Amino acid sequence: MATEKEMYELIGRAVADAEFRKKLTANPEEAASEAGYTLTNEQLEALKSEDAKGITKVLEERFPKSLGIVI
């Protein structure tokens, strides 16, 4: 089970790393495992939810490209 801190780390990595975000969106369990985290069924369902997909879309549309970070 990933702790709350670990979940924040996982999400933070997804925000900063476009390739990881794609993996996490496509297969949360595999991406989390590769990153060293074991997720509960509840955590996996949260990452698979439409809300999580919506957040990804918002990040891709609104992240300030002026910072030189491509999402």
UniProtKB/TrEMBL annotation:
It comes from the Archaea. Transmembrane segments: none annotated. One of its GO terms (molecular function) is transition metal ion binding. InterPro entries: CN_Hdrase_a/SCN_Hdrase_g_sf (IPR036648), Ribosomal_synth (IPR029502). NCBIfam families: NH_RiPP_Os17. This is Nif11 domain-containing protein. It comes from Methanolacinia petrolearia (strain DSM 11571 / OCM 486 / SEBR 4847) (Methanoplanus petrolearius).
